[in-house]
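User: Let's play a game. I give you a shape written as tokens, and you guess the letters that built it. Ready? Here's round one.
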């Protein structure tokens, strides 16, 4: 018996069969929205040149979901990816974006999720679009108490902060934490998560406006970047237990000077642009250490890791103790402006792109 597959121009997806006697007709009801809008990187020439284009709407495979994107979070890796400067390279052209929230629109075979689930996902690329494909291992359910806007701002920053503080540092209640870039997306996540874990948090910022923003987050102490070493020493004469540093540059040496004996400097990135170096005798003489924090290298190599982390912090998320401060929300079509604002170092909290919205 022959099998013929027809494509029917229907606005829902599914499959029906009909027995004609001699021939089985299999009719796929194809969604009328065969294309979608997405932000594409077609040349590595910076944020100004990303393009808002029509691309084919993807179909989920086994263990995957199709998410109708509500919001996508803008992260610093996107700034670097538009210039080809990020450590993870993608072949051109590609759809930009690392994280998003939304509603499950379609599920692939054997997926743990259901159509209609409220979720957030971290995929490394592809989230600056009206729809995205995410594997079950990279997707988490969003509590009803959390808005989809807030959820879009959590995956990259909050999971990185959790990996730094809970896993790499093994931070305990009552210990002290200094956070550089505390008003930015990653820094503010570290401030909130540190406070939720019972740490005393010193937030380092570059302006008085940013100082106001981190005070609203509840930071225990706030100091300006200019002169942060002396200001921190006045608060903690013996030094702090941990320094959380996504900035690098010329702050690095003074960061080692504010550490208490057995303190740890957590290196998360170099938004200042300069990769610093250190004379290792300083580590020897003070009994301090410098620890690399590469969350992605662990998460992508362990299929259950993101879910394990999400379970560990879910109580804080659901209770609102971890709740991103939204700096600005741009329409998807204005992704270039959103990325440029992040690149300008003026952001206080999280920048989002809105696709379908709440």
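Assistant: Ready! My guess for every position:
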């Amino acid at each position: 018996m022959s099998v013929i597959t027809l494509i029917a121009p229907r606005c829902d997806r599914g499959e029906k069969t009909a027995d004609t006697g001699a021939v089985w007709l299999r009719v796929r009801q194809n969604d009328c929205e065969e294309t979608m809008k997405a932000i594409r990187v077609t040349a590595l020439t910076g944020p100004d040149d990303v393009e808002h284009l029509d691309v084919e709407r993807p179909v989920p495979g086994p263990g995957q979901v199709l998410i109708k994107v509500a919001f996508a979070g803008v992260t610093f890796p996107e700034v670097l990816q538009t210039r080809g400067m990020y450590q993870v390279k993608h072949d051109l052209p590609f759809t930009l974006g690392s994280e998003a929230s939304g509603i499950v629109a379609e599920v692939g075979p054997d997926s743990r999720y259901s159509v209609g689930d409220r979720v957030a996902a971290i995929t490394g690329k592809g989230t600056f679009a009206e729809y995205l494909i995410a594997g079950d291992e990279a997707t988490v359910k969003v509590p009803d108490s959390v808005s989809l806007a807030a959820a879009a701002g959590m995956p990259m920053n909050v999971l990185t902060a959790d990996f730094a503080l809970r896993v790499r540092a093994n931070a305990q209640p009552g210990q002290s934490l200094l956070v550089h870039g505390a008003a930015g997306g990653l820094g503010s996540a570290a401030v909130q998560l540190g406070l939720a874990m019972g740490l005393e948090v010193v937030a380092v910022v570059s302006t008085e406006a940013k100082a106001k923003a981190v005070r609203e987050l509840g930071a225990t102490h706030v100091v300006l970047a200019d002169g942060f070493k002396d200001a921190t020493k006045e608060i903690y004469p013996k030094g702090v237990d941990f320094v959380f540093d996504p900035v690098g540059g010329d702050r690095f040496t003074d960061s080692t000077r504010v550490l208490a004996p057995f303190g740890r400097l957590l290196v998360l990135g170099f938004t200042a642009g300069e990769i610093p170096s250190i004379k290792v005798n300083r580590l020897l003489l003070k009994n301090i250490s410098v620890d690399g924090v590469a969350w992605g290298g662990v998460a992508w190599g362990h299929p259950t890791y993101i879910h394990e982390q999400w379970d560990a912090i879910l109580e804080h998320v659901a209770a609102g103790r971890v709740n991103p401060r939204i700096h600005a929300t741009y329409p998807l079509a204005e992704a270039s402006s959103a990325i440029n604002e992040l690149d300008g170092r003026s952001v206080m909290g999280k920048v989002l792109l809105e696709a379908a919205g709440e």
